[in-house]
Amino acid sequence: MAEWFHRNPLKSTSYVTFELRGVATTGAAQRICGELRQARNQLIELLSNPGNQTTVVTSALDAYLGLLFGFVISADENGKDSKLRHAVQFRWSNTLLGNASLTQCDALYDQICVIFNVGLWFSKHAAAVAGKDEPKMEEALEVHKCLRIAAGMFMYIKKNLLGRLKEQPQQKATDLDSNILVAYQQQCLAEAQEVTIARAIELKHNSSIVSALAHETAKLYTEADAALTAAGDRVCLKWQKYLQFKSEIYYAYAYSYHGDSLLAQDKCGDAIKCLKESQAHYEKATQIIKEYSSAKGAGKTAKPQEHLFFRRLGPIVQRTLDKCVHENGIIYHQKIPPVTPELEQGAAYGIASPEEFQMPSSNSAWTVDTYKAFDEKKLPQKPDKAAAGENAEVPPVKEKEIPNSSKQPATSSGCVIS
Fold it and tell me: Mean per-residue pLDDT for 237-252?
């Protein structure tokens, strides 16, 4: 099966020691620093492989965030910012901007970047499961769930964490840009709905159901594209072309199935107009995917134009259109309306929503006494950004390839996941 999903690279980061000699004045405080270092390294290593188990990655995330909690929120029960929040420097790259990093002395910044990266990992894991030869029903459900989990993480960052950062980067198209977060969220939700659409086609559900869901999916891709336009940087162009392609494909499916529905109601003239609109979107998608393939930007180039789900649509629409024109000439004799019939608004079934992300609670090692054992008077001064190499490059993550089956699906939808 051809590569259907576009995925941007993981964020990369520099090694953090959490070395606070003189600040951590007791063995318990020093152990937290050591455990933080180990937990962070373990999590980052796990994320390089999209084939890892979700339970393993989730446990590693919970472990690290639980330990980091006391560096973000005070552990003395007042609920305010921790005195340690700016004690450690963190350096992270951005998914669209290559290896150049942004550096902040802020544990909240690390918290955001870690959750972001895990959200991206869940989307990559979903693509890996979808790339198998013949995924089973439970694996299709896993793909759907992982994409909703990822969407929930991006939404949580935007709604609950981003506004608390004291430093907002001036550079465009960073992962701290709310528009970038919206684009990732909407793409994940759209892809989750793709699973449902394939299932609906495979089970031969009513054409109106497939059309409405395809319409909602097309709109999600359009919203993701609009968010990247608002981010205002050409580094988004390749990703945008992919989103535009997906939007056009699902508009093509929406009008095709709407045409089927209208034909079943003996509205042959309206059906012909819808099928011609479907053809127009399909042709536009064919042009956009060529632009995507040659565009520069982040992420490995996918090959959705080789996927059966895309290739099957053009001939199906043409055959259905030919049938409608033939029957209209013999039976219905209806005029073709000048305006395309509107698609139904709001699908009744299959709409995906983000799975709510719950921030893990503080690790039990964070007691009032342990928190007090960190002597804030001995904290090092915040390093000068220029001296710290604020935009220094960090090596990219050596990600394992997302596997893609070479076997063509034997389903009527053209999708393996259905």
Answer: 97
